[in-house]
Amino acid sequence: MWGGPSQFETWDPKPDAPEEYRGPFRPIRTAIPGMNICELFPLQARLARRLAVVRSLHHTMSSHNDGSIELLTGKTPLVAEPTSTAKSDHPDFGMVASRWRNLRPDGLPQYVGIPRRHS
């Protein structure tokens, strides 16, 4: 999710970490013993048995944008772009899934990717 909340503010609040690493919200228990998520997700906490939370992803890119491209497309950018203005040569997973699912009954696409603008 471009520009989305961090893992500390969602599914991995790290309540026992030093204050500078923790998110601003309190963790709440889920239906899975020992698994806590952000207090803003009570419905997801009740449905935790149906979730697959992956907390082991990482990348070796030197810029945040290149890492995001690798995560969203599954492809490492051909050339590192430290200015975070790189564009991917590959479609992201949402676009691929949309292609397989075809149009919705109302004719609208399942997914739309909008390029980010940098000021």
Secondary structure topology:
Layout (H helix, E strand, L loop, with lengths): L26 E3 L6 E3 L3 H5 L17 H10 L19 H9 L18
Antiparallel strand pairs: 1-2
Describe this structure in words.
The protein has 119 residues and is mainly α. It has three helices and two strands. The chain has helices at 42-46, 64-73, 93-101; strands at 27-29, 36-38. A two-stranded antiparallel ribbon has the order 1-2. The two termini are 20 Å apart.
Features:
single chain, 119 residues, mainly alpha, two-stranded antiparallel sheet, 2 strands, flat
The succession of helices and strands, N to C, reads EEHHH
The beta-strand count equals 2
Rg, Cα atoms, Å = 17 Å
Percent of residues in β-strands: 5-15%
Unreliably modeled segments? none
Describe the biggest sheet?
Answer: 2 strands, antiparallel
Name the structural class. Answer: mainly alpha
Specify the overall morphology: flat
Instruction: Determine the N-to-C terminus distance.
Output: 20 Å
Q: Could you tell me the mean pLDDT?
A: 81
Going across the biggest sheet, name each strand in turn: 1-2
Brief summary of the model shown:
The protein is 20% helix and 5% strand. It has three helices and two strands, in the order ββααα. A two-stranded antiparallel sheet has the order 1-2.
